[in-house]
Design goal:
It contains three helices and five strands; from the N terminus they run βαββααββ. A three-stranded antiparallel beta sheet has the order 1-4-5, with no helix packed on it. Strands 2-3 form a two-stranded antiparallel ribbon. The protein is globular, with a radius of gyration of 14 Å.
Length: about 120
């Protein structure tokens, strides 16, 4: 995998949840993506929600697409390739569900939920 998923620090956990209004502005939140693996467990359905659309420029879109594609395609068992891979990744990281990927330009926070059909 081209990106390293790090366990988010305790003081960063709130960044793994939807931010809006002043909290989004203070943290520089651009938006969030909700994804699931469909009924078969091998699909990848997504919905994007803007927090601050004016921050979602072309550079962000390219880097975000690269990140998501890497989590779906790179490595032996990429965590976003299927529900089975996702479950294996979550099991290997015990109870940790909030991860961070830091790049030169952005910090991406990812909350993983291994439970099928749960959209909290």
């Amino acid at each position: 995998m081209a990106y390293e998923l790090l366990v988010a620090e305790k003081e960063e956990l709130h960044l793994c949840f939807r931010l809006s209004g002043e909290a989004a502005e203070r943290c520089g939140a651009i938006g969030y993506l909700r994804a699931d693996f469909g009924r078969s467990g091998k699909e990848f359905w997504t919905t994007w929600f803007d927090s601050q659309p004016h921050l979602k420029g072309p550079d962000f879109k390219v880097k975000f697409d690269e990140l998501i594609n890497s989590l779906r395609d790179d490595g032996d068992k990429p965590p976003f390739a299927s529900r089975d891979n996702h479950l294996a990744f979550c099991a290997a990281h015990s109870s940790m569900t909030c991860f961070k990927i830091a790049t030169l330009d952005y910090s991406f926070y990812i909350r993983l939920n291994p439970n099928q059909g749960t959209y909290d």
